[in-house]
Write a structure and sequence with these properties.
The protein is mostly helical. It has helices at residues 21-32, 112-126, 136-157, 173-185, 188-216; strands at residues 2-4, 36-37, 60-64, 75-76, 89-90, 103-106, 159-162. The protein folds into three domains: 1-98, Endonuclease/exonuclease/phosphatase (Deoxyribonuclease I, Chain A), CATH 3.60.10; 99-165, no CATH class; 168-218.
Length: 218
Amino acid sequence: MAGDFNIQDNDWDPLFPHHSAHSDDLITIADSFNLDLSSPTNPGPTRFADNPRDNNSAINLMFINSRNHGFNNHTIMENKRLSLDHAPLYVKIQINPVNINIWKRSIKTESNDKMKYDSYILSQTVSLRSNNLTTPKEVETFTREIAQVFMDAWNKFSKEYKITRQSKEWWNQECTSKLNKYRNTKNLNNWKGFKQATRTAKNKFFKENIHEIAVSNK
């Protein structure tokens, strides 16, 4: 949390002779977010007065989570303020590398793979013995068998896709066809046709999701 808090206090400005009651409130609010006042590596003013008879002041502050070892103390960048009367504050944040999965498996709605997926699940679950389950062990075995059927169907009929900024769950083959037609012709009417196809696809997708939430899942 950083910015111009417009509070002068000798806690962060040794040249200022007084303590402000507002600073106590600010520290309390920051503490409620587990943030502590950061000390600059180069203490000094952060606001520079236009009038040489006025004093410079330190009213730009930064609060950081000191328990996070990825943070260092901030630096007052006086030489970067140019014509501004406030100096920017700089802090280095070290971010640990993470493995972001950019691939996902999915089955497109209304595709042949979706029909095969449904048919496979139906044929496999019908053959499972589901009657006369009288013991907890039999129920547990049956549920494991159902889960295995769904897992096998997913691995068999889903395909791997690369996740991009353009990945949209509502996108369908009609959208692809209309977009390709516009790209080939650059015709305005074909562009309108593409936009209409995306609106229709979105409308259908979200209506089905709303129905699933409201009706099926109550």
